[in-house]
Amino acid sequence: MDTTLNNDNNTSKVEVSFKERLWIIIPVVLLVGLLSTLVYNHYSEFTWDGFVGGFNQELLVFFAIGVFAQLVDGTLGMGYGATSSSFLLAYGISPAISSTGVHVAEMFTTGASAISHHKFGNINKKLLKNLLIPGAIGSITGAYLLADVIDGDTIKPFIAIYLMILAVVIIIKALRKNITKKKTKKLGFLATFGGFMDSIGGGGWGPIVTSTLLGRGRNPRYTIGSVNAAEFVVSFASGITFMLFGGINGWQVIIGLILGGVIAAPLGAYLVNKIQRKPMMVVVGVLIILLSLKTLWKFL
Q1: DSSP class of 216
Q2: CA–CA separation, 278 vs 280, rounded Å?
Q3: CB–CB of 146/298 below 8 Å?
Q4: Please, what's the largest Cα pairwise distance for the chain?
Q5: 142 in any annotated domain
Q6: Cβ partners under 8 Å of residue 110, min gap 6
Q7: Does 241 fall in a domain?
Q8: Is 182 helix (H, G, I), strand (E, B) or coil?
Q9: Which DSSP symbol is given to 122?
């Protein structure tokens, strides 16, 4: 009898251990497959001559944007797309290239972030599962419209205004003092809307989904970790859609954001409970507003 119970316990432990490993194995396999596909289809850009030939001051600028945006996203659970898109648009990058670059880069940065949050125990698996499929559907729809239907230059000022609205939302959430915990309803609709706006505007998954959930009184640690982990699937879905319908452009943007984001992801996951979130949210919100105003000024 004791031997049977021990065998059952050992089998159960093996199953649990395998399921836990899947949280790391799946992102790693997807990222290796994606990287292999990119290298195969764009070999010349990945050669040493291609990399060195494209290495200039702009790559360092995009690298710095990637580091800063990932630190913001990893610690606040929001703001990667809004922050990086605001910087890129203000720098003069077109909306289509900006959104493509951000989402292809996010495939890698959110993968690293998801693994980091899992390692630090920041993920609520039930919440994560409720966000995955609706978020992916919304992101695919938005990416298709931007890549194949909508003229990016035409909507550039509207994206800047949208990012300003996101920034205001971030600031308002930061300034709220007392948050009463409420039951979150219509998670699927929230995730679909967040995924759609994230793809079409180059950012918004965090400010829409994370801020709503935090505004409902959810635990910041598990909310941020779970939403960041779900963002890996959302970014993967939109990034693949951009590649299928719009192709890959702006390699310096992508490489700079990937390198900066992957390096900063573990630090962001570590700092999630170490910093004062409200002052940081206000600073990020004001920064996005200023960058968006610059983009509008250049357009006008």
Answers
A1: T
A2: 5
A3: no
A4: 80
A5: yes
A6: 80, 228, 229, 231, 232, 234, 235, 236
A7: yes
A8: coil
A9: -
C-alpha dihedral, 105 to 111 to 112 to 118, nearest 10°: 160
- What residues have CB less than 8 Å from 54, skipping those under 6 apart? 45, 251, 252, 255
User: Which pLDDT value is given to residue 274?
Assistant: 72
Residue 67 one-letter amino acid: V
Kindly tell me if the per-residue pLDDT of 5 is higher than 50: no
Is 198 a domain residue? yes
CB contact set of 8 (below 8 Å; sequence gap of 6+): none
Nearest-angstrom CA–CA distance, 141 and 199: 8
DSSP one-letter string for 15-35: HHHHHHHHHHHHHHHHHHHHH
Average pLDDT over residues 21-36: 68
Q: In the predicted model, what is the mean pLDDT of the chain?
A: 76
Please count the structural domains in the chain.
Answer: 1
Cα 268 to chain center, whole Å?
Answer: 13
CA angle 100, 102, 175 (to 5 degrees): 135
In angstroms, the CA 208 to CA 188 distance is 13
Report residue 244 as tokens. 């299928």
Copy the structure tokens of residue 143: 């990416």
Contact 98, 85 (CB under 8 A): yes
43 falls within a domain: no
Which domain range does residue 262 map to?
A: 56-299
Amino acid at 29: V
Tokens 């949280």, residue located:
23
pLDDT per position as a tens digit, 39-60: 665 566 555 565 555 556 788 8
Global pTM value: 0.71
